[in-house]
Amino acid sequence: MAMTEEQLQELITRICENSDLHSAKRRKDIERLLRELQQLSGLIQSYHLLYLEALDQTWLWVSNHICNFERQPNLSIKESLKNWINGYLKRRIQDLYINQAKQQHNELSLDTPINDNSENPLTFLEQLSDNSFNAPTLSGIDSYIEKCRNINIQVALDNLEHYLEEDPEHIFQNCHPRQYSNCNCQLLCQKLVFQYPPDTFANISRELEINYDTLRSFWKRKCLPLLQQKLEELGYSRDEEL
To answer: Residue 135 falls within a domain, yes or no?
Structure first.
């Protein structure tokens, strides 16, 4: 059951009044707070495959800066928290698309106008939507970002979720760090991609007793490429035209 406004405020106050940053009590309160915040309605989402990295960075930031949170006038504490979290998460998602564009178009300036309107020039950076973070329809910009708005990607994701549940060839189940067979790509994809709200690397690291950095490195090196490969096999191609 979700916390009431009063319970949420009491939890935040208790966390901030505990000066022992490494105490077990404060850590448990932080974990309880994060579980509650992950259920907030209206948190920004993205189809970017590295979205989970941005989300994990955001929860870490919340853990370290919750005592700097200030409730907005005339808004509930939950609404204020949602806006506060989204403000940081939005910047992290923008970073994903900016870095992706830089990698593929090293000579493209983010401040270069991408339209022909001299009175109202539009730059690539400005084209990043405050709400959906869809990339601009500019020739040469990564078509993968564009296609994430297309219904075809949702169909492929639905097919992928079903495939993961079955994993008939045991491709995802058999992909795991040495000595950590329980930390396989099937489990990680289900927890990080298809579970709502998605789990965090920190929680999974504790649950499976695997080093946090090892977990994140394995996810990026093994599971993400496997996920992309299977998406393409199920009908989604980065190279197809819209």
So the answer is: no
- HSE-CB of 56 using CA atoms within 13 angstroms: 20
Q: Per the structure, how many domains does the chain have?
A: 2
Task: Please indicate, yes or no, if residue 97 is contained in any of the structural domains.
Answer: no
Give CA–CA dist 61/212, Å, rounded: 16
Please give the structure tokens belonging to residue 13: 């106050």
Residues 94 and 128: beta-carbon distance below 8 Å = yes
In a domain, 199, yes or no: yes
Which stretches of the chain are DSSP H helices?
A: 5-17, 24-37, 51-65, 77-104, 124-127, 143-147, 151-166, 185-189, 201-208, 212-218, 224-233
| Residue in the structure block whose two tokens are 């539009």 | 122
Q: Average pLDDT of 72-99?
A: 88
| 10 and 79 together in one domain | yes
pLDDT at 137: 38
pLDDT tens string 149-180: 444 555 666 778 888 888 999 999 999 999 89
Contacts of 30 (CB under 8 A, 6+ apart): 15, 63, 66
Q: Does residue 68 fall inside a structural domain?
A: yes
The conformation of residue 142, written as its DSSP 8-state character, comes to -
Its domain, for residue 176, covers 151-233
